[in-house]
Amino acid sequence: MNATTTLEDFESLALACKALSHPARLAILQTLARRGTCICGEIVEVLPLSQATVSQHLKVLKEAGLITGEVDGPRSCYCINNATLQALGAQLGQMFRALEGCC
To answer: Once rounded to an integer, what is the mean pLDDT over residues 41-66?
Structure first.
């Protein structure tokens, strides 16, 4: 987020922010972070949501690159994508610092 930042540069940032804009998705990320390891199917047991709802939220998080997922037979296992989250934190910090100088 500097003088040469283009609209395209903001696309992945906006996608990640949109994925983070739902409380259920934040709860899923928190659940994954607390476990510190990949989770297979346990997310539904922890959250008061249906399997279909959790699956939809996982899909959004995965499309935004915030989590990774692998199919392991009949189940899927999910982990936080730490590299993406660190990059997102850096981008947001950079953007907010740039906005502080306004007005």
So the answer is: 91
Which of these, 51, 49, 58, lies nearest to 80 by C-alpha position?
58
Q: Report the Cα 48 to chain-centroid distance in Å.
A: 19
Every domain of the chain and the residues it spans? 7-97
Pinpoint the alpha helices (H) of 3-103.
Answer: 7-19, 23-35, 42-46, 51-63, 82-100
The DSSP bridge partners found for residue 75 are 72
Most confident of 5-9, 42-46, 64-68, 72-76: 64-68
Confidence of residue 6 (pLDDT cuts 50, 70, 90): confident
CATH number 3.60.21.10 given to 7-97? no
In total, the chain counts a number of residues equal to 103
Nearest Cα to 85, choosing from 5, 17, 11?
17
